[in-house]
Every structure is written in structure tokens, then in C-alpha cells.
Amino acid sequence: MSVTKQVSEFDEIGTTFGLSAGGQQCFFCSELLVDPAVMWYGGTGQKLYLHADCVPQLCAGLLRDMREINVSENTASLSDIKGV
Hints:
Layout: E1 2-3, E2 38-41, E3 47-50, H1 54-82
Antiparallel strand pairs: 1-2, 2-3
């Protein structure tokens, strides 16, 4: 993950650094972003932009879904063992 910067921010040699999320849509809530925001590269290299406040909500949802899959897989395994 990276934190985005405004394009108007320059490094010591006068070039822009970082990325700007300005005008991008938040991956979680779809609202337009302003910097600073969070940028994350997806598996195929696409950039996912998020509001800082949306990151914990997305992570909580992913963890909840992962737990639900693990519980249903464990329940299926127990049913096989018990012959239910």
C-alpha cells in the first residue's frame, strides 16, 4: 500500500513524487477521492484507491468473509467425519 500525495507536492529536485488519487473513485464507497488517500496494486497491476477511513471497513469485511468460508469448510469436514 502507498499513501498518495497531491501532484503539486515536489521533491528536492523539483519533480512530482508519489501518486495522486485526485479525481479517482474509492474502491470501497465509490465516492471521489482527494489526497492523501491509500493506493494499492491489485493482482493484475490495477490501482485500487481508497479513502483512509474506508480501509478498515474493507479489511473487516474481507476478514469476516474469510472466517465465514473457513467455518463452512470446517462444518463440511465435520459432517463428512460424523456421516451426517
